[in-house]
Batch of 2 targets.
Target 1
Amino acid sequence: MRTRADPRLRPLLVRWFRAEQRALPWRTRREPYRVWISEAMLQQTRVATVIPYYERFLARFPDIATLAGAAEEDVLAHWSGLGYYRRARTLHLTARRIVEQHAGEFPRTRAELLELPGIGPYTAGALASLAFDAPEPLVDGNVERVFARLFALPGAAGSTELRKRVWDLAAELVPRAGGAGEWNEALMELGALVCLPREPRCAACPWAGACAARALGRARDFPAPKARKLGVEVELEALFVERGGRILLWRRPEQGRMARLWELPTRELGSQRLFPARLPTGFRAGAELGRLRHTITHHRIRLALRRGQIAVPPRGADWRWVPWGETSALALTGMARKALRALRPTAILRGTPRSPPSKTSECRA
Ligand code: SF4
Protein backbone atom coordinates (compact mmCIF):
# COMPACT_ATOMS: atom_id res chain seq x y z
CA MET A 1 0.00 0.00 0.00
CA ARG A 2 1.29 3.43 -0.91
CA THR A 3 1.39 5.57 2.20
CA ARG A 4 1.40 9.21 1.14
CA ALA A 5 -2.19 10.46 1.01
CA ASP A 6 -3.42 6.98 0.20
CA PRO A 7 -7.24 7.22 0.00
CA ARG A 8 -7.56 3.90 1.85
CA LEU A 9 -6.03 5.33 5.01
CA ARG A 10 -9.14 7.26 5.91
CA PRO A 11 -11.81 4.54 5.91
CA LEU A 12 -9.48 2.20 7.78
CA LEU A 13 -8.96 4.71 10.57
CA VAL A 14 -12.55 5.91 10.77
CA ARG A 15 -13.89 2.35 10.97
CA TRP A 16 -11.45 1.58 13.77
CA PHE A 17 -12.39 4.78 15.62
CA ARG A 18 -16.11 4.11 15.47
CA ALA A 19 -15.55 0.69 17.01
CA GLU A 20 -12.85 1.49 19.55
CA GLN A 21 -13.19 5.10 20.73
CA ARG A 22 -13.46 5.79 24.44
CA ALA A 23 -16.68 7.17 25.88
CA LEU A 24 -15.51 10.56 27.15
CA PRO A 25 -17.77 13.21 28.66
CA TRP A 26 -16.82 15.88 26.09
CA ARG A 27 -17.79 13.55 23.26
CA THR A 28 -21.45 13.32 24.24
CA ARG A 29 -22.30 16.80 22.85
CA ARG A 30 -19.97 18.42 20.37
CA GLU A 31 -20.69 22.04 21.31
CA PRO A 32 -17.96 24.66 20.87
CA TYR A 33 -17.90 25.61 24.56
CA ARG A 34 -17.51 22.01 25.71
CA VAL A 35 -14.88 21.29 23.06
CA TRP A 36 -12.95 24.39 24.09
CA ILE A 37 -12.97 23.60 27.83
CA SER A 38 -11.92 20.00 27.25
CA GLU A 39 -9.11 20.99 24.89
CA ALA A 40 -7.81 23.61 27.31
CA MET A 41 -7.77 21.07 30.16
CA LEU A 42 -6.26 18.28 28.09
CA GLN A 43 -3.14 20.24 27.17
CA GLN A 44 -0.28 18.65 29.13
CA THR A 45 -2.74 16.67 31.27
CA ARG A 46 -3.92 13.07 31.09
CA VAL A 47 -7.51 12.21 30.18
CA ALA A 48 -8.17 10.33 33.44
CA THR A 49 -7.04 13.38 35.45
CA VAL A 50 -9.12 15.79 33.38
CA ILE A 51 -12.48 13.97 33.54
CA PRO A 52 -13.49 14.89 37.14
CA TYR A 53 -12.21 18.48 36.67
CA TYR A 54 -14.14 18.81 33.43
CA GLU A 55 -17.35 17.57 35.00
CA ARG A 56 -17.02 19.89 38.02
CA PHE A 57 -16.13 22.85 35.82
CA LEU A 58 -19.08 22.26 33.49
CA ALA A 59 -21.43 21.84 36.46
CA ARG A 60 -20.32 25.22 37.86
CA PHE A 61 -19.86 27.05 34.53
CA PRO A 62 -22.29 25.33 32.15
CA ASP A 63 -22.00 27.93 29.38
CA ILE A 64 -19.80 30.73 28.21
CA ALA A 65 -21.96 33.49 29.71
CA THR A 66 -21.68 31.93 33.18
CA LEU A 67 -17.92 31.59 32.81
CA ALA A 68 -17.56 35.16 31.56
CA GLY A 69 -19.59 36.51 34.49
CA ALA A 70 -17.71 34.57 37.16
CA ALA A 71 -15.02 35.96 39.47
CA GLU A 72 -11.48 34.96 38.54
CA GLU A 73 -10.95 33.40 41.95
CA ASP A 74 -13.95 31.13 41.43
CA VAL A 75 -12.59 30.00 38.04
CA LEU A 76 -9.15 29.33 39.52
CA ALA A 77 -10.68 27.41 42.43
CA HIS A 78 -12.37 25.05 39.94
CA TRP A 79 -9.09 24.70 38.05
CA SER A 80 -7.01 24.23 41.17
CA GLY A 81 -4.94 21.05 40.96
CA LEU A 82 -4.79 20.95 37.15
CA GLY A 83 -1.73 23.21 37.04
CA TYR A 84 -0.82 25.62 34.24
CA TYR A 85 -3.01 28.31 35.80
CA ARG A 86 -2.30 30.80 33.05
CA ARG A 87 -4.56 28.63 30.90
CA ALA A 88 -7.46 29.14 33.32
CA ARG A 89 -6.93 32.90 33.40
CA THR A 90 -6.74 33.07 29.62
CA LEU A 91 -9.85 30.91 29.32
CA HIS A 92 -11.71 33.36 31.53
CA LEU A 93 -10.44 36.36 29.57
CA THR A 94 -11.39 34.72 26.28
CA ALA A 95 -14.88 33.90 27.54
CA ARG A 96 -15.36 37.58 28.32
CA ARG A 97 -14.05 38.57 24.90
CA ILE A 98 -16.45 36.16 23.15
CA VAL A 99 -19.41 37.44 25.15
CA GLU A 100 -18.52 41.11 24.62
CA GLN A 101 -17.35 41.03 21.02
CA HIS A 102 -19.10 38.01 19.49
CA ALA A 103 -22.41 38.07 21.39
CA GLY A 104 -21.47 34.85 23.17
CA GLU A 105 -21.03 32.86 19.93
CA PHE A 106 -17.73 31.24 19.02
CA PRO A 107 -16.31 32.40 15.70
CA ARG A 108 -16.38 29.56 13.17
CA THR A 109 -13.30 30.17 11.05
CA ARG A 110 -9.72 29.32 11.88
CA ALA A 111 -8.58 32.90 11.19
CA GLU A 112 -11.14 34.42 13.59
CA LEU A 113 -10.46 31.81 16.24
CA LEU A 114 -6.74 32.54 16.10
CA GLU A 115 -7.44 36.16 17.02
CA LEU A 116 -8.76 35.12 20.43
CA PRO A 117 -6.39 35.05 23.42
CA GLY A 118 -4.91 31.63 24.18
CA ILE A 119 -6.15 30.02 20.98
CA GLY A 120 -3.24 28.74 18.90
CA PRO A 121 -3.17 26.59 15.75
CA TYR A 122 -4.01 23.37 17.59
CA THR A 123 -7.04 24.73 19.48
CA ALA A 124 -8.28 26.63 16.43
CA GLY A 125 -8.10 23.39 14.41
CA ALA A 126 -9.85 21.47 17.19
CA LEU A 127 -12.67 23.99 17.54
CA ALA A 128 -13.20 24.49 13.81
CA SER A 129 -13.20 20.76 13.01
CA LEU A 130 -14.71 19.14 16.13
CA ALA A 131 -17.39 21.76 16.82
CA PHE A 132 -18.15 23.01 13.28
CA ASP A 133 -16.82 20.15 11.12
CA ALA A 134 -14.76 22.64 9.10
CA PRO A 135 -12.00 20.97 7.03
CA GLU A 136 -9.20 22.15 9.30
CA PRO A 137 -6.22 20.05 10.40
CA LEU A 138 -4.80 19.82 13.89
CA VAL A 139 -1.53 18.48 15.25
CA ASP A 140 -0.79 17.52 18.83
CA GLY A 141 1.82 15.15 20.26
CA ASN A 142 -0.29 12.10 19.37
CA VAL A 143 -0.81 13.14 15.77
CA GLU A 144 2.87 14.01 15.44
CA ARG A 145 3.91 10.56 16.68
CA VAL A 146 1.41 8.70 14.47
CA PHE A 147 2.47 10.54 11.31
CA ALA A 148 6.16 10.37 12.17
CA ARG A 149 5.81 6.57 12.24
CA LEU A 150 3.31 6.14 9.43
CA PHE A 151 5.58 8.06 7.05
CA ALA A 152 8.93 7.37 8.83
CA LEU A 153 9.60 11.10 9.08
CA PRO A 154 12.96 12.51 10.15
CA GLY A 155 13.25 15.06 12.95
CA ALA A 156 13.07 14.98 16.73
CA ALA A 157 9.75 15.00 18.61
CA GLY A 158 8.48 18.56 18.92
CA SER A 159 11.13 19.97 16.55
CA THR A 160 10.18 22.69 14.09
CA GLU A 161 11.24 20.49 11.20
CA LEU A 162 8.99 17.60 12.20
CA ARG A 163 6.06 19.77 13.28
CA LYS A 164 5.98 21.57 9.92
CA ARG A 165 6.05 18.32 7.99
CA VAL A 166 3.26 16.87 10.11
CA TRP A 167 1.10 19.99 9.76
CA ASP A 168 1.50 19.78 5.97
CA LEU A 169 0.46 16.13 5.99
CA ALA A 170 -2.46 16.80 8.33
CA ALA A 171 -3.68 19.57 6.00
CA GLU A 172 -3.30 17.27 3.00
CA LEU A 173 -5.21 14.39 4.58
CA VAL A 174 -8.06 16.16 6.41
CA PRO A 175 -11.41 15.38 4.73
CA ARG A 176 -12.79 18.29 2.71
CA ALA A 177 -16.37 17.13 2.29
CA GLY A 178 -17.47 16.39 5.87
CA GLY A 179 -16.03 14.27 8.64
CA ALA A 180 -13.01 16.47 9.50
CA GLY A 181 -13.86 16.44 13.20
CA GLU A 182 -14.19 12.67 13.34
CA TRP A 183 -10.96 12.22 11.37
CA ASN A 184 -8.97 14.51 13.66
CA GLU A 185 -10.35 12.85 16.72
CA ALA A 186 -9.60 9.41 15.31
CA LEU A 187 -5.98 10.41 14.68
CA MET A 188 -5.53 11.57 18.26
CA GLU A 189 -7.30 8.48 19.59
CA LEU A 190 -5.01 6.20 17.60
CA GLY A 191 -2.02 7.91 19.19
CA ALA A 192 -3.59 7.67 22.66
CA LEU A 193 -4.69 4.02 22.49
CA VAL A 194 -2.56 2.19 19.94
CA CYS A 195 0.42 4.10 18.63
CA LEU A 196 1.80 4.52 22.14
CA PRO A 197 5.06 6.36 22.73
CA ARG A 198 7.11 3.47 24.14
CA GLU A 199 5.21 0.37 23.14
CA PRO A 200 3.20 0.85 19.94
CA ARG A 201 0.54 -1.83 19.63
CA CYS A 202 1.07 -2.40 15.93
CA ALA A 203 -0.84 -5.68 15.88
CA ALA A 204 -4.00 -3.77 16.84
CA CYS A 205 -3.41 -0.86 14.46
CA PRO A 206 -5.69 -0.25 11.47
CA TRP A 207 -2.70 1.22 9.61
CA ALA A 208 -0.29 -1.63 10.32
CA GLY A 209 -0.16 -2.55 6.62
CA ALA A 210 0.62 1.00 5.57
CA CYS A 211 3.09 2.03 8.24
CA ALA A 212 6.60 2.84 7.02
CA ALA A 213 8.24 2.68 10.46
CA ARG A 214 6.71 -0.74 11.08
CA ALA A 215 7.86 -1.96 7.68
CA LEU A 216 11.38 -0.92 8.66
CA GLY A 217 11.00 -2.78 11.96
CA ARG A 218 11.67 0.50 13.76
CA ALA A 219 8.30 1.68 15.01
CA ARG A 220 9.73 2.78 18.37
CA ASP A 221 12.49 4.84 16.77
CA PHE A 222 10.08 7.46 15.37
CA PRO A 223 10.01 10.26 16.16
CA ALA A 224 13.57 10.67 17.37
CA PRO A 225 13.61 11.65 21.07
CA LYS A 226 13.97 15.31 21.91
CA ALA A 227 16.80 16.56 24.08
CA ARG A 228 15.68 16.40 27.69
CA LYS A 229 15.60 19.52 29.82
CA LEU A 230 17.52 18.79 32.99
CA GLY A 231 15.46 18.69 36.15
CA VAL A 232 16.12 21.28 38.85
CA GLU A 233 15.99 20.27 42.51
CA VAL A 234 14.18 22.73 44.80
CA GLU A 235 14.08 22.58 48.62
CA LEU A 236 11.10 24.24 50.30
CA GLU A 237 9.76 24.57 53.81
CA ALA A 238 6.05 25.21 54.42
CA LEU A 239 4.59 26.22 57.76
CA PHE A 240 1.35 24.88 59.15
CA VAL A 241 0.07 27.70 61.35
CA GLU A 242 -3.23 26.82 62.97
CA ARG A 243 -5.57 28.69 65.32
CA GLY A 244 -8.98 27.56 66.50
CA GLY A 245 -9.50 25.23 63.57
CA ARG A 246 -8.34 27.75 60.97
CA ILE A 247 -5.08 27.71 59.09
CA LEU A 248 -3.07 30.62 57.82
CA LEU A 249 -2.70 30.85 54.04
CA TRP A 250 -1.07 33.46 51.84
CA ARG A 251 -1.64 34.44 48.24
CA ARG A 252 1.21 34.46 45.75
CA PRO A 253 2.08 37.73 44.03
CA GLU A 254 0.41 39.13 40.90
CA GLN A 255 3.37 38.26 38.70
CA GLY A 256 5.35 35.07 38.24
CA ARG A 257 4.56 31.39 38.61
CA MET A 258 1.22 30.35 40.11
CA ALA A 259 0.29 34.03 40.35
CA ARG A 260 -2.51 34.90 42.81
CA LEU A 261 -2.94 31.32 44.05
CA TRP A 262 -3.16 30.44 47.73
CA GLU A 263 -0.72 28.29 49.67
CA LEU A 264 0.83 27.71 53.08
CA PRO A 265 3.45 30.24 54.13
CA THR A 266 6.43 28.81 52.27
CA ARG A 267 10.07 29.69 51.89
CA GLU A 268 12.79 28.36 49.68
CA LEU A 269 15.93 26.94 51.22
CA GLY A 270 17.94 26.94 48.00
CA SER A 271 18.46 29.54 45.32
CA GLN A 272 16.13 28.56 42.47
CA ARG A 273 13.81 31.48 43.23
CA LEU A 274 10.66 29.49 42.73
CA PHE A 275 9.46 30.79 46.08
CA PRO A 276 10.66 33.67 48.25
CA ALA A 277 13.69 32.84 50.31
CA ARG A 278 12.23 34.61 53.35
CA LEU A 279 8.88 34.81 55.04
CA PRO A 280 7.68 38.01 56.69
CA THR A 281 9.29 38.50 60.08
CA GLY A 282 7.78 36.79 63.09
CA PHE A 283 7.31 33.25 61.75
CA ARG A 284 8.91 30.50 63.77
CA ALA A 285 9.33 26.99 62.40
CA GLY A 286 8.71 24.11 64.82
CA ALA A 287 8.54 20.33 64.61
CA GLU A 288 8.56 18.64 61.25
CA LEU A 289 5.17 17.12 60.37
CA GLY A 290 6.11 15.36 57.17
CA ARG A 291 7.75 15.59 53.79
CA LEU A 292 6.41 15.37 50.29
CA ARG A 293 7.55 15.65 46.73
CA HIS A 294 5.96 17.71 44.02
CA THR A 295 6.90 18.56 40.43
CA ILE A 296 6.25 21.84 38.65
CA THR A 297 7.41 21.65 35.02
CA HIS A 298 11.09 20.66 35.37
CA HIS A 299 11.34 21.72 39.03
CA ARG A 300 11.51 18.72 41.36
CA ILE A 301 10.43 19.98 44.73
CA ARG A 302 11.15 18.47 48.12
CA LEU A 303 8.85 20.07 50.64
CA ALA A 304 9.29 19.87 54.42
CA LEU A 305 6.06 20.52 56.30
CA ARG A 306 6.61 22.06 59.71
CA ARG A 307 4.38 23.31 62.45
CA GLY A 308 4.66 27.09 62.47
CA GLN A 309 3.92 29.87 64.91
CA ILE A 310 3.51 33.58 64.60
CA ALA A 311 2.71 36.06 67.35
CA VAL A 312 1.40 38.83 65.10
CA PRO A 313 0.16 37.54 61.72
CA PRO A 314 1.00 39.55 58.59
CA ARG A 315 -1.78 41.89 57.54
CA GLY A 316 -3.65 42.50 54.32
CA ALA A 317 -5.90 40.83 51.77
CA ASP A 318 -3.18 38.39 50.75
CA TRP A 319 -3.25 36.63 54.14
CA ARG A 320 -6.25 34.69 55.39
CA TRP A 321 -7.24 32.42 58.25
CA VAL A 322 -9.22 29.68 56.53
CA PRO A 323 -11.30 26.97 58.25
CA TRP A 324 -10.27 23.46 57.20
CA GLY A 325 -13.67 22.85 55.64
CA GLU A 326 -13.29 25.84 53.33
CA THR A 327 -9.79 25.39 51.94
CA SER A 328 -11.00 23.44 48.92
CA ALA A 329 -13.11 26.39 47.80
CA LEU A 330 -9.97 28.49 47.39
CA ALA A 331 -7.75 28.68 44.32
CA LEU A 332 -4.89 26.72 45.86
CA THR A 333 -1.64 25.73 44.21
CA GLY A 334 -1.40 22.01 43.45
CA MET A 335 1.35 21.72 46.04
CA ALA A 336 -0.77 23.41 48.73
CA ARG A 337 -3.64 21.04 47.95
CA LYS A 338 -1.29 18.09 48.38
CA ALA A 339 0.20 19.52 51.58
CA LEU A 340 -3.23 20.12 53.12
CA ARG A 341 -4.28 16.57 52.30
CA ALA A 342 -1.15 15.33 54.06
CA LEU A 343 -1.68 17.63 57.06
CA ARG A 344 -5.36 16.96 57.65
CA PRO A 345 -4.78 13.78 59.74
CA THR A 346 -2.33 15.75 61.89
CA ALA A 347 -4.97 18.36 62.60
CA ILE A 348 -7.66 15.78 63.28
CA LEU A 349 -5.41 13.93 65.72
CA ARG A 350 -5.00 17.18 67.60
CA GLY A 351 -8.76 17.61 67.81
CA THR A 352 -9.18 20.32 65.19
CA PRO A 353 -12.80 20.37 64.03
CA ARG A 354 -13.35 19.44 60.38
CA SER A 355 -15.73 22.25 59.56
CA PRO A 356 -15.60 24.95 62.17
CA PRO A 357 -18.42 27.43 62.18
CA SER A 358 -16.21 30.50 61.80
CA LYS A 359 -15.88 32.17 58.44
CA THR A 360 -12.73 32.67 56.41
CA SER A 361 -11.25 35.96 57.47
CA GLU A 362 -8.65 38.25 56.02
CA CYS A 363 -5.81 39.39 58.20
CA ARG A 364 -7.06 42.96 58.53
CA ALA A 365 -4.75 45.88 57.96
FE1 SF4 B 1 1.95 3.28 15.09
FE2 SF4 B 1 2.48 0.69 14.78
FE3 SF4 B 1 0.26 1.78 13.76
FE4 SF4 B 1 2.66 2.33 12.72
S1 SF4 B 1 1.65 0.34 12.77
S2 SF4 B 1 1.00 3.79 13.12
S3 SF4 B 1 3.90 2.37 14.56
S4 SF4 B 1 0.78 1.57 15.94
Note: The domain at 9-221 is CATH 1.10.340.30 (Endonuclease III; domain 1).
Target 2
Amino acid sequence: MKTMAGSTQLAGMVSGIAAGAIRVVDLTETLRPEYPTIKLPPQFGQASPFVKRQISRYDEAGPAWYWNNFTMSEHTGTHFDAPVHWITGRDVANGSVDTIDPRRFIAPACVIDCAREVAADADFILSKELLLRWESAHGRIPAGSWVFLRSDWRKVAPPDNYTNTDENGAHSPGPDAEAVQWMIRERDVLGFGTECVGTDAGQAFRFELQYPCHHLMHGAGRYGLQCMTHLDRLPPTGAVIIAAPLKIEDGSGSPLRVLALVPADY
Ligand code: MN
Protein backbone atom coordinates (compact mmCIF):
# COMPACT_ATOMS: atom_id res chain seq x y z
CA MET A 1 0.00 0.00 0.00
CA LYS A 2 2.90 2.30 0.85
CA THR A 3 4.34 1.75 -2.63
CA MET A 4 0.94 2.48 -4.24
CA ALA A 5 0.67 5.81 -2.41
CA GLY A 6 4.21 6.75 -3.44
CA SER A 7 3.64 5.98 -7.11
CA THR A 8 0.36 7.92 -7.05
CA GLN A 9 2.09 10.94 -5.57
CA LEU A 10 4.98 10.79 -8.03
CA ALA A 11 2.60 10.40 -10.97
CA GLY A 12 0.65 13.40 -9.68
CA MET A 13 3.80 15.48 -9.56
CA VAL A 14 4.90 14.48 -13.08
CA SER A 15 1.45 15.13 -14.56
CA GLY A 16 1.26 18.39 -12.62
CA ILE A 17 4.49 19.57 -14.23
CA ALA A 18 3.36 18.41 -17.68
CA ALA A 19 0.00 20.17 -17.32
CA GLY A 20 1.51 23.37 -15.96
CA ALA A 21 -0.13 23.13 -12.53
CA ILE A 22 3.42 22.98 -11.14
CA ARG A 23 5.89 25.44 -12.65
CA VAL A 24 9.64 24.75 -12.75
CA VAL A 25 11.61 27.91 -11.95
CA ASP A 26 15.35 27.98 -12.65
CA LEU A 27 17.19 29.82 -9.88
CA THR A 28 20.59 29.36 -11.56
CA GLU A 29 22.97 31.91 -13.11
CA THR A 30 24.55 30.87 -16.43
CA LEU A 31 28.17 29.71 -16.06
CA ARG A 32 30.24 32.00 -18.29
CA PRO A 33 33.75 33.48 -18.12
CA GLU A 34 32.50 36.95 -17.18
CA TYR A 35 30.56 35.65 -14.20
CA PRO A 36 32.13 37.23 -11.10
CA THR A 37 33.79 35.13 -8.41
CA ILE A 38 34.41 36.18 -4.83
CA LYS A 39 37.70 38.03 -4.31
CA LEU A 40 39.55 37.52 -1.02
CA PRO A 41 42.28 39.78 0.35
CA PRO A 42 45.50 39.18 -1.66
CA GLN A 43 47.27 37.14 1.05
CA PHE A 44 44.72 34.32 0.61
CA GLY A 45 44.21 31.79 -2.16
CA GLN A 46 41.68 32.77 -4.82
CA ALA A 47 38.72 31.02 -6.45
CA SER A 48 39.03 30.35 -10.18
CA PRO A 49 36.42 31.83 -12.49
CA PHE A 50 34.62 29.65 -15.02
CA VAL A 51 36.93 28.95 -17.98
CA LYS A 52 35.80 26.82 -20.92
CA ARG A 53 38.19 25.36 -23.48
CA GLN A 54 36.90 23.70 -26.59
CA ILE A 55 38.09 20.15 -27.31
CA SER A 56 36.44 19.89 -30.71
CA ARG A 57 33.49 21.22 -32.67
CA TYR A 58 32.82 19.05 -35.74
CA ASP A 59 36.42 19.62 -36.88
CA GLU A 60 39.75 17.74 -37.16
CA ALA A 61 39.83 17.27 -33.38
CA GLY A 62 36.42 15.63 -33.48
CA PRO A 63 34.67 15.49 -36.84
CA ALA A 64 31.20 14.55 -35.58
CA TRP A 65 31.18 15.94 -32.06
CA TYR A 66 31.33 19.13 -30.00
CA TRP A 67 32.60 19.22 -26.41
CA ASN A 68 34.56 21.39 -23.97
CA ASN A 69 36.79 21.13 -20.95
CA PHE A 70 36.16 23.59 -18.17
CA THR A 71 37.75 24.71 -14.92
CA MET A 72 36.34 26.64 -11.97
CA SER A 73 36.37 26.60 -8.20
CA GLU A 74 33.86 24.70 -6.10
CA HIS A 75 32.44 28.13 -5.21
CA THR A 76 31.99 29.69 -8.66
CA GLY A 77 28.59 30.62 -10.05
CA THR A 78 25.36 29.50 -8.41
CA HIS A 79 26.73 27.07 -5.85
CA PHE A 80 26.20 24.96 -2.74
CA ASP A 81 28.24 25.33 0.47
CA ALA A 82 28.75 22.13 2.47
CA PRO A 83 29.54 22.11 6.22
CA VAL A 84 33.25 21.31 5.67
CA HIS A 85 33.61 24.62 3.79
CA TRP A 86 34.04 26.32 7.17
CA ILE A 87 36.44 25.37 9.97
CA THR A 88 33.51 25.07 12.40
CA GLY A 89 32.03 22.31 10.21
CA ARG A 90 35.19 20.35 9.53
CA ASP A 91 34.25 17.50 11.88
CA VAL A 92 30.54 17.43 11.02
CA ALA A 93 29.46 13.90 10.05
CA ASN A 94 28.67 13.64 6.32
CA GLY A 95 29.80 17.22 5.92
CA SER A 96 31.22 17.08 2.38
CA VAL A 97 29.12 17.16 -0.80
CA ASP A 98 29.73 13.48 -1.60
CA THR A 99 28.54 12.25 1.79
CA ILE A 100 25.41 14.36 2.40
CA ASP A 101 22.19 12.32 2.51
CA PRO A 102 20.63 12.96 -0.93
CA ARG A 103 17.18 13.32 0.62
CA ARG A 104 18.39 16.69 1.85
CA PHE A 105 18.76 17.92 -1.73
CA ILE A 106 14.96 18.22 -2.03
CA ALA A 107 13.36 20.56 0.50
CA PRO A 108 10.77 23.32 0.90
CA ALA A 109 11.78 26.98 0.90
CA CYS A 110 10.67 29.99 2.90
CA VAL A 111 11.41 33.15 0.92
CA ILE A 112 11.95 36.31 2.92
CA ASP A 113 11.31 39.25 0.62
CA CYS A 114 13.83 41.93 1.58
CA ALA A 115 14.00 43.57 -1.88
CA ARG A 116 12.69 46.92 -0.73
CA GLU A 117 14.97 47.04 2.32
CA VAL A 118 18.04 46.07 0.26
CA ALA A 119 17.21 48.67 -2.40
CA ALA A 120 17.30 51.29 0.36
CA ASP A 121 20.39 49.86 2.10
CA ALA A 122 22.72 47.32 0.45
CA ASP A 123 24.13 46.50 3.92
CA PHE A 124 20.67 45.42 5.13
CA ILE A 125 20.82 42.96 8.05
CA LEU A 126 18.21 40.24 8.42
CA SER A 127 17.29 40.04 12.10
CA LYS A 128 15.34 37.58 14.22
CA GLU A 129 12.65 40.25 14.64
CA LEU A 130 12.18 40.44 10.86
CA LEU A 131 11.95 36.65 10.64
CA LEU A 132 9.32 36.61 13.37
CA ARG A 133 7.40 39.34 11.54
CA TRP A 134 7.59 37.22 8.36
CA GLU A 135 6.21 34.25 10.32
CA SER A 136 3.27 36.30 11.61
CA ALA A 137 2.27 36.87 7.97
CA HIS A 138 3.21 33.50 6.42
CA GLY A 139 3.32 30.94 9.22
CA ARG A 140 6.06 29.14 11.08
CA ILE A 141 9.20 28.16 9.17
CA PRO A 142 8.98 24.34 8.95
CA ALA A 143 11.90 22.24 10.19
CA GLY A 144 14.14 21.13 7.33
CA SER A 145 13.36 24.19 5.17
CA TRP A 146 15.67 26.42 3.23
CA VAL A 147 15.43 30.07 4.23
CA PHE A 148 16.10 32.32 1.23
CA LEU A 149 16.84 36.03 1.43
CA ARG A 150 15.27 37.65 -1.63
CA SER A 151 17.13 40.85 -2.51
CA ASP A 152 16.60 41.22 -6.29
CA TRP A 153 20.37 41.63 -6.15
CA ARG A 154 20.87 42.01 -9.90
CA LYS A 155 18.90 45.27 -9.71
CA VAL A 156 21.00 46.52 -6.79
CA ALA A 157 24.63 45.68 -7.62
CA PRO A 158 26.31 47.56 -10.48
CA PRO A 159 26.65 45.17 -13.47
CA ASP A 160 30.45 45.36 -13.33
CA ASN A 161 30.64 45.11 -9.51
CA TYR A 162 28.52 42.14 -8.44
CA THR A 163 29.97 42.07 -4.93
CA ASN A 164 29.24 45.83 -4.62
CA THR A 165 32.72 46.49 -3.25
CA ASP A 166 34.22 49.88 -2.41
CA GLU A 167 37.20 50.98 -0.26
CA ASN A 168 35.33 49.76 2.87
CA GLY A 169 34.74 46.27 1.53
CA ALA A 170 31.70 44.55 0.01
CA HIS A 171 28.19 45.83 0.64
CA SER A 172 25.51 43.15 0.43
CA PRO A 173 22.78 41.89 2.78
CA GLY A 174 22.90 38.98 5.22
CA PRO A 175 21.66 37.74 8.58
CA ASP A 176 23.09 38.67 11.97
CA ALA A 177 24.34 36.04 14.44
CA GLU A 178 21.14 36.07 16.49
CA ALA A 179 18.99 35.41 13.41
CA VAL A 180 21.26 32.54 12.31
CA GLN A 181 21.31 30.98 15.78
CA TRP A 182 17.51 31.25 15.95
CA MET A 183 17.04 29.64 12.51
CA ILE A 184 19.20 26.70 13.60
CA ARG A 185 18.06 26.18 17.20
CA GLU A 186 14.44 27.30 17.12
CA ARG A 187 13.45 26.35 13.56
CA ASP A 188 15.91 23.57 12.64
CA VAL A 189 16.38 24.94 9.11
CA LEU A 190 18.21 23.03 6.38
CA GLY A 191 20.27 26.06 5.41
CA PHE A 192 20.32 29.62 4.15
CA GLY A 193 20.32 30.85 0.55
CA THR A 194 20.88 34.17 -1.18
CA GLU A 195 21.24 35.91 -4.52
CA CYS A 196 24.49 37.55 -3.36
CA VAL A 197 28.01 36.16 -3.56
CA GLY A 198 27.97 34.92 0.06
CA THR A 199 25.40 33.85 2.65
CA ASP A 200 26.96 36.43 4.98
CA ALA A 201 26.59 40.17 4.62
CA GLY A 202 29.41 41.92 2.74
CA GLN A 203 30.42 43.69 5.94
CA ALA A 204 30.24 40.51 8.09
CA PHE A 205 34.02 40.57 8.56
CA ARG A 206 33.36 43.51 10.93
CA PHE A 207 30.77 41.65 13.03
CA GLU A 208 31.64 40.64 16.61
CA LEU A 209 31.27 37.04 15.43
CA GLN A 210 32.76 37.21 11.93
CA TYR A 211 30.76 35.56 9.12
CA PRO A 212 28.02 34.27 11.46
CA CYS A 213 26.11 32.43 8.72
CA HIS A 214 29.15 30.42 7.64
CA HIS A 215 30.39 29.98 11.21
CA LEU A 216 27.12 28.86 12.80
CA MET A 217 25.25 27.19 9.92
CA HIS A 218 28.17 25.01 8.82
CA GLY A 219 29.16 24.31 12.44
CA ALA A 220 25.63 22.98 12.93
CA GLY A 221 25.83 20.83 9.76
CA ARG A 222 23.61 23.13 7.67
CA TYR A 223 24.11 24.25 4.08
CA GLY A 224 24.36 27.39 2.01
CA LEU A 225 23.24 28.40 -1.50
CA GLN A 226 24.77 31.45 -3.14
CA CYS A 227 24.58 33.46 -6.34
CA MET A 228 21.02 32.34 -7.07
CA THR A 229 18.71 34.43 -9.22
CA HIS A 230 14.95 34.88 -9.78
CA LEU A 231 13.94 34.47 -6.15
CA ASP A 232 11.24 37.04 -7.05
CA ARG A 233 9.50 34.23 -8.95
CA LEU A 234 8.94 32.20 -5.78
CA PRO A 235 6.01 32.40 -3.36
CA PRO A 236 6.82 33.11 0.32
CA THR A 237 6.01 29.46 1.08
CA GLY A 238 5.06 26.42 -0.98
CA ALA A 239 8.04 26.10 -3.35
CA VAL A 240 10.08 22.89 -3.31
CA ILE A 241 13.79 23.28 -4.07
CA ILE A 242 15.91 20.70 -5.87
CA ALA A 243 19.55 21.54 -5.17
CA ALA A 244 21.92 18.59 -5.59
CA PRO A 245 25.64 19.48 -5.68
CA LEU A 246 28.12 17.53 -7.79
CA LYS A 247 29.47 14.45 -6.03
CA ILE A 248 33.04 15.70 -5.64
CA GLU A 249 35.10 13.49 -3.32
CA ASP A 250 35.56 15.43 -0.05
CA GLY A 251 34.17 18.49 -1.85
CA SER A 252 33.49 21.69 0.13
CA GLY A 253 30.75 22.80 -2.23
CA SER A 254 29.90 22.78 -5.90
CA PRO A 255 28.27 24.70 -8.72
CA LEU A 256 24.83 23.25 -9.39
CA ARG A 257 21.51 23.79 -11.08
CA VAL A 258 18.98 25.01 -8.51
CA LEU A 259 15.37 24.34 -9.50
CA ALA A 260 12.17 25.31 -7.73
CA LEU A 261 8.84 23.53 -8.15
CA VAL A 262 6.17 26.17 -7.68
CA PRO A 263 2.39 25.78 -7.59
CA ALA A 264 1.09 27.65 -10.66
CA ASP A 265 -1.90 28.99 -8.72
CA TYR A 266 0.43 31.09 -6.60
MN1 MN B 1 30.58 29.39 -1.21
Note: Residues 75, 79, 81, 226, 253 surround manganese (II) ion (CB under 6 Å).
